[in-house]
Amino acid sequence: MRQYVNKSLDRGLQILDLFNESRELMTASEIAAALNTSPATLYPTLHTLVAHGYLVRDEVKRFRLGLKLLERSGQVLVGLDVRRVAQPHLRRLARSRQVTADLAILYGREVLYLEREVGHPTAILSEVVGRRVPLHCTSLGKVLLAFLPDQERLELVKGLSLEAYTPNTIVEKKRLLDELRSIRDRGYALDIEEFHLGSACVGAPVWSHGGRVVAAISLMLPVTKDLRRHHSEEARAVIETATAISKELGFASGKGGLR
């Protein structure tokens, strides 16, 4: 209800939402242009955000997100039972297969990463916690879509923009819905170079005690010529890990789709 929205706070949140992976640094003029206003009107809000640690201003007067956001996001993540419960299981999966394993949830019309574990403790990978990626071309996203209640799934797919990230990306909604039905039948999703060329993943659902899918986990796979036909061992490992996490969250088979 817009009549209850505080305009100053709303403007501050709009400023924070402008920053992303492609816009890590912005001047006051760039922020003003993005919000269709003048820099002068933004200075009080910008300096307030800097004073509270939500923005940092560098020596050439560019702004970036501050550590206060990391502090707050950390508090949110700590409070998520699924992340706490999943972490040791995810670590065992990654170490046993010697590849990367991820945990994510549905966030609006996107996938939101909650956790990543690497197969090699010394591996250095870009930070993905808090990153959002598309639903239609990732194994995590397709799992989260596939196990939604029927009407929710149809409505969500209807509102998606199926952007082609690679030649393998599914861009037709009927084909995506067919794929989601297959995922429900077999209990896991496969992504072979649908989001990034040279990358493949297999994902499975994590169920809550109430019998609803609350998250998904995935395992990265090496891209091979016969991967679409020869991935059963990895799929089994992901499903077993997802099952263990689900049971620790209180899920009992029969309430949902675990086999």
Largest sheet: 6 strands, antiparallel
Determine the strand fraction and express it as a percent band. 15-25%
Tally of structural domains: 2
The rough form would be described as: elongated
Average pLDDT across residues?
87
Question: For this structure, what is the CATH class of the largest domain?
Answer: Alpha Beta
- CATH superfamily of the largest domain, called what? GAF domain
Can you characterise this structure?
Helix content is 42%, strand content 19%. By secondary structure, it is an alpha+beta fold. It has 2 domains: 2-67, Winged helix-like DNA-binding domain superfamily/Winged helix DNA-binding domain (Arc Repressor Mutant, subunit A), CATH 1.10.10; 80-248, 2-Layer Sandwich (Beta-Lactamase), CATH 3.30.450.40. Strands 6-5-4-9-8-7 form a 6-stranded antiparallel beta sheet. Strands 1-3-2 form a 3-stranded antiparallel beta sheet. A hairpin with a 7-residue loop joins strand 7 and strand 8. It starts with 6 loop residues before the first helix and ends in an 11-residue tail after the last helix.
How would you summarize what this structure contains?
The protein has 259 residues and is of the alpha+beta class. The protein is 42% helix and 19% strand. Strand 4 and strand 5 form a beta hairpin.
